Amino acid sequence: MTDLPGFFSTLGFPQELSNPNVHTRWMHRCLELASLAAGQTAPNPMVGCVVLNQGVVVGEGFHPGAGQPHAEVFALAQAGGRAKGATLYVNLEPCNHTGRTPPCTEAIIRAGISQVVVGMVDPDPRVSGSGIQRLRQTGIEVKVGVEEAACQRLNEAFVQRVTCHRPLGLLKYAMTLDGKIAATSGHSAWVTGPVARAAVHQLRATCDAVVVGGNTVRRDNPRLTSHGHSSHNPLRVVMSRRLDLPDQANLWHTQAVPTVVFTTAQADPAQQQQLTAQGVEVVALPTLTPRLVTNQLYQRGCAVVLWECGGRLAAEAIKDSVIDKLWAFVAPKLVGGEAAPGPVGDLGIQHMGQALALERTTWRTLGDDLLLEAYLCPPALD
Question: 72 an active-site residue?
Fold first, then answer.
């Protein structure tokens, strides 16, 4: 099994420091605990909690998934009576409302905690600021904003889901140094090496859904799982207007990992029946666009949607403004050929001044390959 907290540290989340400030040190531990549930908490955030009494950890916990107790509850239960007079660290503001679980603020108050250190304010309007206010009203000292940038990064998908009412869209592709994702024949296994492919499997374990088009199913017959790197696998999503899909495919094996196919009224009824018989969910939409599919996935509670599609669908997703972040793998290989496909299809760009810009770019090596991580700049306002 992959160490997901370690995987998150390679994405820019902080690692334990040798002599850190005490608040920073324990907030880092909260982030490490929170990431243990990566990919499993949507639509909830990832939250970790540490209870410290006189410099000794007396309780730890993390939120394992929606409907289950929050991180603070696990940490306080482990601490028991030792929570009285202690300091509680948590990377997200404790909730102060009753949802599927009772308010964490009341559990903190009952436990006799004297100080609470919060990484970031919860953007959810049901919580935002009220949890902090409730704790302060009872005389608990509250410090806010410790390692806030790192806390925001960890829960960037949750923040977007709450503020924009849309999952975070992540486009991943692997290309050769000359910008090809396959040879002229369409053969694409493998562009990158084993280290890079393992990183993709780990990435899937942190996502709620992974989307491909019909061409990917026909040509590559992918599994789209985390390949044993985690017990969590994302919902597998296929977009196909007419259901011109193979009768047999790895994605139709749904005993362990579900698959949903989004299509239209033009779909082949016989193929729909065939897929349904194999346990595949088939959903017909008025029109099949990345935006409508993203809306459907939002309604299903998804926070992170990974697009592992071909160039045509990637371009449609970008133009539909559902892609926020890119993972672009670059292999030290040359394929050549004018007909060899690239990672992104036609965007309608006629000159370089129209090129879509990326920001917050980082590079790292994975074996012999390079990985660029970046965010699409938001469109300029008219």
Answer: yes
